[in-house]
Design a protein that fits this description.
This protein is α/β, with parallel strands linked by helices and 221 residues long. It is built from six helices and eleven strands. Strands 3-2-1-4-5-6 form a six-stranded parallel β-sheet, covered by helices on one side. Strands 8-7-9 form a three-stranded antiparallel β-sheet. It has a two-stranded antiparallel sheet with strand order 10-11. α1 runs parallel beside α2, α1 packs across α5 and α1 packs across α6. The model has no long low-confidence stretch (mean pLDDT 90).
Length: 221
């Protein structure tokens, strides 16, 4: 497995939790996905489109792929090939980073005042410098998962008992004795299955952190 299925599922849960703690109505919230045509981006767009509708902004490098994604997910999302600038990104209250770039991509120049950035990408697409340059925004470590008590493993520089969603998916596959191949495009049915497994085995979205520091939503320093 590439682990992206549970990453997309738990990222959606994280966005819902963020919106709730920020007292935002998702149906009226503008959410931008940067890297929308990637494996995780497409699955996340499919989950968000029915809820967010025209407030969903899909950002990627290829206009043709964006248009196909726009048609596929429904809900009338807007599209843009701007990855770090332009008015369309500046409208978003929540910006989700899901690119495969090995370097930090997001610049603060066009981010909306008080925006929240939920960075799922590994390597991450945000840096502490961005947080220092824009102290009004909140950068959240995305798709981190709390593991059940009793599971011991290499922590990958994360907080104790927390792992990346992709690793959590691998653990759940082992716990289920699932020998099937789960690579390629994300199957919506398997996405729901990862959520079932997480509930059964005790995996949950980890408490919010920013660059590894525990945060309370609303406190950006």
């Amino acid at each position: 497995t590439h682990g992206d299925t549970y990453a997309a599922a738990v990222a959606f849960q994280g966005i819902q939790k963020l919106a709730s703690q920020l007292i935002l109505n998702l149906e009226k919230t503008k959410i931008a996905i940067i890297g929308a045509t990637g494996i995780i981006g497409k699955a996340l767009a499919l989950q968000l489109a029915p809820v967010v509708g025209e407030g969903l902004i899909l950002i990627g490098r290829n206009q043709t792929r964006l248009q196909k994604l726009q048609s596929w997910v429904g809900g009338s999302p807007r599209i843009s090939t701007d990855k770090d600038g332009g008015k369309i990104l500046g409208e978003a209250e929540i910006v989700v980073m899901v690119t495969s770039s090995p370097a930090a991509l997001l610049m603060g120049e066009y981010l909306k005042m008080g925006a929240v950035v939920y960075d799922v990408s590994q390597p991450r697409n945000t840096t502490p410098l961005l947080a220092r340059e824009r102290p009004d925004i909140l950068i959240v470590d995305g798709a981190n998962v709390s593991v059940p008590a009793g599971i011991k493993f290499w922590w990958m520089s994360l907080r104790p008992h927390v792992t990346f969603a992709c690793m959590a998916e691998t653990m759940m596959q082992a716990l289920e004795s699932d020998l099937a191949n789960h690579v390629g495009e994300i199957d919506p049915k398997f996405l729901k299955e990862t959520l079932r497994r997480a509930k059964v085995h005790g995996f949950n979205h980890a408490p919010f952190t920013s660059f590894g520091r525990t945060i309370t939503i609303g406190q950006k320093d």
